[in-house]
């Protein structure tokens, strides 16, 4: 039986705890109904054993404190809502315990932004990982040694597991159930909870708002220029001219400030415009393409799918009202 320690910390999201408990309990139920032994024993573990205040003022009682758990197979760091700096400051005990247990060979996992706990413990250095898409840029800046992937629903790197945003965590738990119990058990669990199996990308959920959390006024002006002219055949040379820098220096400085190359930024602005049109209008795909600044359908489809993980047609079916009704 796998022993799992689910970390309950200040400002944890309740659903990040309850959904995990439900999935592992459902797996045990399916196993025992088939005459097999239960596979998982889940413990709620916290710095203290009572009155742990979760996000939304809910309080929870942990079964054990960190000091009481010396033997477990997997630690899962749950998600949170709130200011990252404040959250990390008041959960140093959890971070230290995760680091200590990992040093003893215990595998670790994170749900959504629980990845900050693993990163602070130094466990993501040199590892591929993911997190909620809204946290990706911040994590890349805070933890440059981590290989933070923006579009992945989950990662598995040498005993360190991470998941994408919010309920993408369920896909990581399904992955762990399949890894520990086999696909024959995972399939009925996914059906019991109506969760799609084998989902690998969270890219189509992302909303591009522009990486403006920097103080480089010249690059901010360049970003504004791109956002006001994306519908034209805008070029990097054209944007660089606006900054009165050489193309080479402009590209370097733009990447340093935004974490995107100018070309990536232009493409993301164009595709964000296309996404909004597909969500809210009945324009045909060709007109959406032209309005987004593309004039070649093959190029448009290729860039759109690379950024969102879906074709324009599939994106419309998934996210537009008319597409949903037609489907």
TrEMBL record:
InterPro entries: Class_I_gatase-like, DJ-1/PfpI, Homeodomain-like_sf, HTH_AraC, INH-QAR. It holds the Pfam family HTH_18. Transmembrane segments: none annotated. One of its GO terms (molecular function) is sequence-specific DNA binding. Residues 220-318 form the HTH araC/xylS-type domain. Keywords: DNA-binding, Transcription, Transcription regulation. It comes from the Bacteria. The keyword Endoplasmic reticulum does not apply. This is Transcriptional regulator GlxA family, contains an amidase domain and an AraC-type DNA-binding HTH domain. It comes from Dyadobacter psychrophilus.
């Amino acid at each position: 039986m796998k022993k799992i320690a689910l970390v309950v910390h200040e400002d944890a999201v309740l659903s990040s705890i309850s959904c995990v408990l439900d999935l592992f309990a459902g797996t045990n139920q399916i196993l025992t109904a088939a005459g097999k032994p239960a596979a998982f024993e889940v413990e709620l573990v916290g710095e203290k054993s009572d009155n742990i205040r979760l996000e939304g003022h809910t309080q929870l009682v942990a079964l054990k404190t960190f000091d009481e758990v010396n033997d477990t197979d997997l630690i899962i760091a749950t998600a949170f809502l709130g200011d990252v700096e404040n959250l990390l400051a008041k959960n140093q005990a959890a971070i230290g315990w995760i680091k200590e247990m990992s040093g003893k060979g215990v595998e670790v996992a994170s749900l959504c932004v629980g990845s900050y706990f693993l990163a602070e413990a130094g466990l993501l250095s040199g590892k591929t990982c993911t997190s909620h898409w809204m946290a990706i840029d911040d994590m890349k800046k805070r933890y440059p040694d981590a290989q933070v992937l923006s579009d992945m629903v989950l990662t598995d790197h040498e005993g360190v597991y991470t998941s994408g945003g919010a309920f993408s965590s369920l896909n990581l738990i399904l992955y762990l159930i399949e890894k520990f119990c086999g696909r024959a058990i995972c399939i009925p669990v996914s059906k019991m909870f109506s969760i799609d199996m084998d989902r690998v990308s969270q890219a189509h959920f992302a909303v591009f708002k522009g990486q403006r959390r920097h103080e480089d006024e010249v690059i901010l002006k360049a970003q504004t220029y791109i956002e006001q002219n994306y519908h034209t055949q805008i070029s990097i040379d054209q944007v660089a001219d606006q900054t009165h820098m050489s193309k080479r220096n402009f590209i370097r400085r733009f990447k340093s400030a935004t974490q995107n190359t100018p070309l990536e930024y232009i493409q993301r602005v164009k595709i964000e415009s296309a996404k909004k049109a597909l969500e809210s209008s009945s324009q045909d795909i060709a007109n959406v393409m032209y309005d987004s600044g593309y004039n070649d359908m093959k190029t448009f489809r290729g860039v759109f799918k690379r950024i969102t993980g879906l074709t324009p047609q599939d994106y419309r079916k998934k996210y537009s009202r008319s597409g949903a009704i037609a489907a």
